[in-house]
Amino acid sequence: MNFSEVFKLSNQLCKFSPNGKYLASCVQYRLVIRDVSSLQILQLYTCLDQIQHVEWSADSMFILCAMYKRGLVQVWSLEQPDWHCKIDEGSAGLVSSCWSPDGRHILNTTEFHQHTGAYTLERLMGGISYNGGAGWEQHMTEWAQDGSST
User: Fold this and answer.
1) Which of 23, 43, 88, 95 has the CB geometry, 3.0–4.6 Å to 34, for a possible disulfide?
2) Residues whose CB is less than 8 angstroms from the CB of residue 95 and which lie 6 or more positions away in sequence, other chains included
3) Rounded to whole angstroms, how far apart are CA atoms 99 and 79?
C-alpha cells in the first residue's frame, strides 16, 4: 500500500470535485488544486483572506471560496486559470454561499438572512452580473430540471 506525503489543511477544508478528478484543499488563504490520481499540484490560488468555505460547481469547472469574516467570495476557473472574480457583500456581511445546480449561479446570504443575492457567471463576457435581491429568498430552492432558476 502506498501513501502520499502529508499536506496541511485549514479548518478541515478538503473536497473532491464532483467529477472525481480533482482535490481542493485550503491552507489559510491558499487554495490548492491537485490531480486525484497523482496528488500533483495543478493550480495554486491566493485568496484575499483565510478561506472558511470551499465548494465546487456541479461540472467541476469552477470553485468558490468564501471568506465570511470579510463578506467576500472568490471564484476560480480550472479551465482558464487566469480568470477569477470577486463578490463583495460589503457591510451586509456573509453567512452562506453556494452554487446553483447548473454551476453558473451563486447564491449569497447576508447576515441575519436580510438578503439573498444571486450572481450569474458570464464567463464569455469575462464578468459576473447581479440578479438578486427581493424575491429570490422565496424561490431559492426552486430549480428547473436543467438546473436553471425558475
Assistant:
1) 23
2) 68, 109, 110, 111, 113
3) 17
Residue 150 contacts residue 140 (beta carbons within 8 Å): no
The C-alpha atoms of residue 148 and residue 20 are separated, in whole angstroms, by: 23
pLDDT block averages, 10 residues each, the chain of length 150: 69 92 95 94 95 95 94 92 86 87 86 74 51 44 51
Looking at residue 73, its pLDDT comes to: 93
